[in-house]
Amino acid sequence: MTVSPAPVTTKAIRPRLLLGPGPSPVSDRILEAISRPTVGHLDPQFLAILDDVSDRLRHLFGTANPTTYAVSGTGSAGMEAALVNVLEPGDEIIIGVNGYFGLRLADMARRMGAEVIEVPAEWGGIVDSDRLVEVHRSNPGARALALVHAETSTGARQPLDEIGDYMRDQETLFILDAVTALGGIPVEVDAHAVDICYAGTQKCVGAPPGLAPITFSSRAIERIRTRDSPVASWYLDVSLISSYLGSERRYHHTAPINSFYGLHEALTVIEEEGLEECFDRHERVGGLLQAELADRGFTPFTDPAHRLPQLNAVRLPEGREEAPPRAALLRDHGIEVGGGLGPAKGSVWRIGLMGQGARESVVERLLTAIDDVLRSPA
Ligand code: PLP
To answer: What is the Rg, in whole angstroms, of the alpha carbon atoms belonging to the chain?
Structure first.
């Protein structure tokens, strides 16, 4: 007798404790918000949510930019929107590359026909600000300069004070990836003279993947207005989307209504806690994990002077392979942590304590599980 396989159904999905590089844990409160009635994208009830999301994002991004919204799509859609709106074939762009997401920026820009000038740095380190300035001085006509604020592949936090001060006086637009930064560490778009900053919902913001918060300065909008050629992507063209976001409310594409409910609720949760308190919690809980892992023989992959609290890239104790205990964490404890990428592949774990994952109780549960899986011989 043949036994028919169990039907595949979302009802069978078991929860996991998401402590990898993303997505991060999504609370019941946000899942409930997502399940509220789907209404039309021109329904006044939805438009009020859409506008409020923009207001709350301005607060989170540290900006007064009127053009602040959430792109339909994940963080990579935000990255593509940032680049495609300002680049034209033949434009130069300077990109700091100290990990996987700097490489992705460079790959996307090349596909758009741009001349990419990479400023490489060691994985785990930061891109040197003096070097960036030097490269810009040699290429002052570059259309844009792009950096990753929180490099998820390495756990490095890129400092922005010096380069922000320098970029303020340049024609070149300053693009910043804040996918892992937003909601976890301060993102200061206006204070750092950033022209385009994009993020994701599925990291420290605490909503599921599917939207990419983004903000454009008036300089960036002016650049888009005076392009020679149309933006190569119809879907991501901010000048078209703006006619839906503004008072005209002209249809562009159907907004992912329920994803906006989730993002709105996640931003409300952050506002209720308070931004500073939210950053302090990430800092405190990340520091706790780092200290506890050091006691257990883990060593940082990241330059200790530039470690992010919300994404911890660590080498396992001497003689330990990374994949078997990582698989055991998922199988025996329902906990997901990430493996390494690029030069960190095979020897590193990436542990995210992002959004609702940044809790002392979560660290305790993780450490109990790590002690258990590392008890078995290497
Ligand atoms: N940029 C950074 C720094 C990221 O960490 C990620 C995702 O991990 C992305 C961009 C791309 O985001 P997504 O995977 O949501 O498309």
So the answer is: 21
State which ligand 1 atom lies nearest to the alpha carbon of 79: 10
Q: Which two tokens stand for residue 51?
A: 């506008």
The closest residue, in CA terms, to atom 13 on ligand 1 is 75
* Beta-bridge mates of residue 247: none
For residue range 40-83, what is the model confidence (pLDDT) as tens digits? 999 999 999 999 999 999 999 999 999 999 999 999 999 999 99
pLDDT in tens, 103-114: 999 999 999 999
Q: In what order do the strands lie in the sheet with 338-339?
A: 299-300, 311-315, 348-352, 338-339
User: Which helix (H) or strand (E) covers residue 243, if one does?
Assistant: helix 238-245
Nearest CA to ligand 1 atom 7: 75
Q: Which atom of ligand 1 lies at the shortest distance from residue 73's CA?
A: 16
119 within 8 A of 96, measured Cβ to Cβ = yes
Q: Which of 264, 291, 299, 267 is nearest to 353 (CA)?
A: 291
The enclosing H or E element of 293 equals: helix 275-295
